[in-house]
Recover the amino acids of this structure.
């Protein structure tokens, strides 16, 4: 398991996402509810979320689809539909439910919020995707899900 | 069916929620994606959402629970848990899934967003609940769900 | 927390549901996947599920609604709609998502299965509800959710 | 849109799934609730479900992943995890939520049921996958979702 976790972290890094990037979003979501929340607490919570088997599966699947699309390996028209992240294509927002559902309703509402406000690395991935430099159609939503789940985890621990 | 819809609208009104209040939230969510979106378009979309049997059921159930809690008709400790809208009580965010799920992923992400930013009537219901003047633990989330679904409906029709 | 768990167990008992009843359903779902699964393993898994705050909230809310409906405390027409467990009334199948989602996709698919086959105590609650002796519109689905979640928990631990 | 629907039907056929195969499952689920249900009614309902944009997206995405896995185009270890349809890999049961959610709670519970009993073409796809002749990890669950949604649609129309 621990080795699968390391693979997930390595793959995220290759796609431009560090645990610290996600932790910064968690901090932004949660600091106002705590007397003293540190970025280390947030890194720890993100790390715990990424250790879960369901989360690892979601991360690896999302990145695999994004990369296959980048290399035009999928059939048309679905390769283009995913690459363009069409507003009526909603599968990328469904896949993160495998993460968010586990962490309860706080994770679920934070997910919808982050999907709109696109803090930090989420906005960066979205921008790279829109400029067609890379395909992050699935990954940006997975990062939203990990951040909102790590935030929910902190809220429940309090 | 149409008579059930009228009952739902009447009950919403009795609890302080007019269709126009919800339409204003829809407008705020959607106007930037349209060349010319009118408040009438939004009223029409909200009205269509409230006509659905699942939505009527959710509205009537939510209001029935809130009112029972206001009158202290439920057993303790659940009556107090609902009245205080404890941050670890998440059933009120689950019930709206019966509405939001039907309208796809745009409805689902808008729901999480509205639950945080609490535009217009949503914030008003939340405030009345926190001041313990009324119990709107379930209704405020149902209003979020109707608004986000009506917004998703407009996005899909475009 | 532990005292809330005891209240949930006590309330289930008052409504005719013992932990052992739920454990028997878990056993029926899982014994074929194990070399040696005991009813004690199943009781232990059910007990762990019921310890979760989200599950306690769902149990207490479901029983509170069922009892309020039995005593005709809710407004019409929703009191009768819930009492008759109309096939187009689906809120009782939404509320258990607050339990089932936490335990992943095995819990989710088992839930749908149990809702159809109605093993043991689930069928008994359903029958009492249909005979209008008691209202178990919400409770029978919550029991499905606890059993399927306890089964999923065992599958993940294996 | 209509052309996208035709592409979805063509792709299903190439993977061994005819509309009639799905309609037979719908019939098996629903005939006992109707005085006179024909296989044509079921074909019509399946056809209506497949016309929805969300369903088309889910069908095309699922088949694209299955085929990419068959050709070993995805990175390891995720290519093997999907190919083996590991019992702890649950992403294939999450993706169908994009279909099932739209059709309400009857669709959702039927989905879990079909995932267990694997009627007709669902069992056939599952068997081909287990024998490693083809990869149907995602498609079998999508077929479950279409059948349960078409069944729910008939129940609501009644």
């Amino acid at each position: 398991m621990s080795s699968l976790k390391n693979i997930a972290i390595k793959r995220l890094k290759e796609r431009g996402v560090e645990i610290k990037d996600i932790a910064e979003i968690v901090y932004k979501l949660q600091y106002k509810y705590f007397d003293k929340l540190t970025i280390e607490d947030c890194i720890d919570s993100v790390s715990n979320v990424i250790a879960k088997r369901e989360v690892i599966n979601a991360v690896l699947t999302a990145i695999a689809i994004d990369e296959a699309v980048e290399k035009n390996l999928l059939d048309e028209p679905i390769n283009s539909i995913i690459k363009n992240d069409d507003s009526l294509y909603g599968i990328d927002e469904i896949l993160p439910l495998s993460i968010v559902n586990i962490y309860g309703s706080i994770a679920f509402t934070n997910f919808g919020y982050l999907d709109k406000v696109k803090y930090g690395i989420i906005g960066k991935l979205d921008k790279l995707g829109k400029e067609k430099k890379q395909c992050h159609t699935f990954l940006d939503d997975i990062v939203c899900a990990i951040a909102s789940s790590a935030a929910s985890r902190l809220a429940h621990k309090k």
Summary: The first helix of chain A runs from residue 2 to 14.
